[in-house]
Amino acid sequence: QVQLVESGGGLVQLGGSLRLSCSASGTIFSINVMGWYRQAPGKQRELVATITTGGSTNYADAVKGRFTISGDNAKNTVSLQMNSLKPEETAVYYCNYKHRRAYWSRQDEYWGQGTQVTVSS
Does residue 2 register a pLDDT over 90? Predict the structure, then answer.
């Protein structure tokens, strides 16, 4: 079992910046993927960015060049630096964790409770 706790959400003006943080605890595998997803009212949850313990990153096209994801494997934490925020990016941002017990096994997935990000115009 893995528990995820997010922090850093809040209210920011158009063009402003926020930094989100996520801390994972429990049975953390040495190889895993952590990331951020967001869900706006009335919309599907969408991927924002992910990072592996090996350091590989993946970003949604909409946030490339503005958001940066980083991780600390020793602390089991991941952060998301969000710059030049837009009102359309108002959403609940969720931390996500995935791992495999073996290469042939299913991938386990866990979610945090989410943190609200509101971008005003």
Answer: yes
Distance CA 45, CA 43 (A): 7
Residue 28 phi, psi dihedral angles, 5° rounding = -95, 125
The average pLDDT across 15-35 equals 95
Least Cα distance to 60 among 32, 99, 91, 101 occurs for 91
The one-letter amino acid code at 69 reads: I
Question: Quick one: pLDDT at residue 103?
Answer: 85
Average pLDDT score over residue span 55-79:
97
Handedness of CA 81, 48, 112, 10 (dihedral sign): positive
How crowded is residue 3: how many other Cβ atoms within 10 Å of its Cβ? 13
64-92 burial, b for 16+ CB within 10 Å, e for fewer?
A: eeebbbebebeebbbbbebeebeeebbbb
| DSSP per-residue codes, 50-87 | EEETT--EEE-GGGTTTEEEEEETTTTEEEEEE-S--G
Residue 25, strand partner residues: 3
